[in-house]
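Standup notes, structure subgroup. Blocker cleared on the flavin-adenine dinucleotide input:
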Amino acid sequence: MGGLMAARALSGRFERVTIVERDVLPDGDAVRKGVPQSAHAHGLLASGYRVMDEYFPGMMDELQARGAPRGDVVGDFLWFQYGRWKLRHDSGLRGITVSRPCLEAAIRRRVKALANVTFREGTDGVKPKFDATAGRVTGLVVRARDGGREETLDADLVVDASGRGSQSPRWLEEAGCGRPEETIVAVDVGYSTRVFARRPGEFFDSIGGIISGTPPLSTRYAAVLAAEGDRWVITLAGILRDYPPTNEEAWVAYAASLPVPAVRDLVTSARPLTDIVTYRFPANQRRLYERMRRFPAGYLVMGDAVCSFNPIYGQGMSAAATEAKALDDCLAAGLDGLSRRFYGRARKIVDIPWAIATGEDLRFPKVEGRRPPGFHVINRYLERVHAVASEDPVVCRKFFDVLNLLASPASLLSPPLVWRVLARAAPKGESSPWGTRRPA
Ligand SMILES: Cc1cc2nc3c(=O)[nH]c(=O)nc-3n(C[C@H](O)[C@H](O)[C@H](O)COP(=O)(O)OP(=O)(O)OC[C@H]3O[C@@H](n4cnc5c(N)ncnc54)[C@H](O)[C@@H]3O)c2cc1C
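Run returned:
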């Protein structure tokens, strides 16, 4: 996803763009080997939606025509967090729910149609080619997976968007630049997903929802996403090795252990279409390329290769899309000093989802990592934000601006908002998944 978005950004700035992809790419929406996570629920945040909508006009209409529902990310999507439903209301934040393979294929079709973009499928990026004297990268060494020989593709710019397993730290070290510092926050998340048939009106007439247990008491989550083809993609997830099972009965019991019965009700009434598939995700991982003293010109790293977040917060595709847009902007000033400009922007982009993901994860005492001063006080305040956002549309919208990576978490600490949050009595009584959409 990061590579496709980067190619779209680069196609307007360079004569030729080549995407080197290890997989032979499917024509349609299939889950493929290089992106095994695509079998699981992939939520697109409003920030990612905006970049994709801008880069590929008409694509969201096409996806909607194929049955991927579009809607308001607060009015049509449900959020149960910290023991309450967020106030369901029209927030003005647009989004779409769609399976990851379908979204990726739609983007890929559009990138393939760009006249100056070529795909080299079934080809490994082996390593970048460095010119040590000039202190720059001059191309990429590649090898076809069907037994071809190594060859070098000359390039003015090489972008590593090869995902979490990126070899850039090793390649840079071999080139004499040293390795980037790395921050790891281990979470040991397990995913377990099943696809069901979807009927109108189900799940409170929504297009999906996130149901979270309250940390640190509960380690369990569910993501329900309406997808094209009248389907629900339903993922159960557990942090700190509380892995959801694969056995059908135990899987339903896991769904029933969530704080509200909505997911259990859905999975016991809807018709399953697939087996249960699993995925394990060990740790949030961030590589601080922006801090490297020596960095070769003509080389960039982006997407999961820079930072991969605990997936339960649904941020990776949106962060990658926003980085691609930043790359586009940075290229307006040419190639000189590009890496400094890009990493400056990328750091700020990544800071927000990183703060959200690790901030939540570190609430679990068993998650190891540095807790900043005031961590517990801020968390108590954020719990209050969660509670008030179940009733107050202004606080709710501000909260979702942050969650959708459109505003920094610090914006929740602005004096007017803090006043509004603290002045309001703590909500009492049951919250509702219907909010302002309560049916007659
Ligand atoms: C279980 C799970 C659930 C997730 N849920 C969400 C979600 O709800 N919302 C969200 O936004 N994000 C989610 N993510 C994150 C999201 O999948 C990634 O952040 C997103 O795909 C961007 O990653 P990327 O493009 O950098 O890398 P990837 O998507 O991993 O793509 C890397 C590509 O590089 C190719 N490749 C790798 N090495 C080489 C090589 N040497 N040569 C050639 N090709 C190579 C691979 O085949 C692949 O095509 C989830 C992740 C996981 C694991």
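Discussed briefly. The radius of gyration is 22 Å.
Next: hand off to the docking folks.
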